[in-house]
Amino acid sequence: MTGDQPLGEMPSSVADLQARLRAAGYLAGRGAATATFIAMRLGRPILLEGEVGVGKTEMAKCLAQIGGRQLIRLQCYEGIDTYQALYEWDYARQMLHVRALSEAELAGAGAVSGLYGPEFLIERPLLSAIKAGSDAVLLIDEIDRADDEFEAFLLELLSDFQITIPEVGTVAAAGRPLVVLTSNRTRELHDALKRRCLYHWIGYPSFDEEIEIVRLRAPGAVATLARKVVAAVQQLRAMDLAKPPGVAETLDWVGALGALGADDLNAQAAADTIGAVVKDRDDLQLVSAGLDRLVVDG
Predict the structure, then answer these.
(1) pTM score, whole prediction
(2) In a 10 Å sphere around its CB, with 0-12 CB exposed, 13-18 middle and 19+ buried, how is residue 126 labelled?
(3) Residues 221, 137: one domain?
């Protein structure tokens, strides 16, 4: 960490942001740190695209940690709708409340309106982020899994950060949360959403960068073992695999080997732990056939 700034203050520079992220265990390249720093300064959302397991989600988690902010995560999936992302009413509690009312209370003018008080409102991630405002990091994870209709709704929300709940009224954010959207690019996002955001592509790290990541996240790993694992993983990514391993799998493999007490990557150790890094049946058959070569080359 650089300077005398407390943890929760805005980073003073790109280098300061990189240092803070590194202290939190995240190695951010100059490009990623610059795009994120600008997004923080301008109050703009940032869209991080890249392959699975390269650290997009982890970036948001670490930004919340170094900023002393609440992390609010919306996990997108096929079929997600606005109510699942915003809010819903607790109908079960409302029915129990109605049953507990006397006939006189039910006849009263406020009986129905009383069913839509805050105690019956279930906040979903987007409403929670609006209420938290600048005290939150809103992670909209895997936005590419949602459909066009939800993407259009999200575009409107990111524009003004307020919503209207018919039974309650308008709820507006006092300040804008830091918004991080991630995409694995399973489909192309609309240009309108991209224009709303700053953009950065996170690719696979270089050999030296990945070694450094392992050192940060698994400081107890034997240096020789870490180098051999990273070399093997980089070769796996060059193969025609359905699901190439990400950095998360590299760390899993190092952890699995460490759990077995291995201090070197040989053919037997690789065969015993290959499931930590290759997680597709067809890929496993392809890799297992050349495992000796993979370890020797590594």
Answers:
(1) 0.86
(2) buried
(3) no
Q: Are 63 and 10 a contacting pair, CB within 8 Å?
A: no
On whether residue 192 sits in a domain, the answer given is: yes
**In which element (H, E) is residue 200 found?**
strand 198-202
In this structure, the answer to whether residues 215 and 79 fall within a common structural domain is: no
Question: For strand 162-165 and strand 169-172, is the pairing parallel, antiparallel, or unpaired?
Answer: antiparallel
Q: Which domain holds residue 22?
A: 14-86+124-202
Q: Hey, what are 252's tokens? A: 């899993």
In angstroms, rounded to a whole number, what is the distance separating the alpha carbons of residues 262 and 260? 5
151 shares a domain with 60: yes
- Condensed to tens digits (0 to 9), the pLDDT of residues 175-195 reads 999 999 999 999 999 999 999
- Render 212-228 in DSSP notation, one character per residue: HHHHHH-TTS-HHHHHH
Q: Is residue 247 part of a domain?
A: yes
- Shared-domain flag, residues 20 and 162: yes
pLDDT digits (tens, 9 = 90+) for 141-180: 999 999 999 999 999 999 889 988 888 889 999 999 999 9
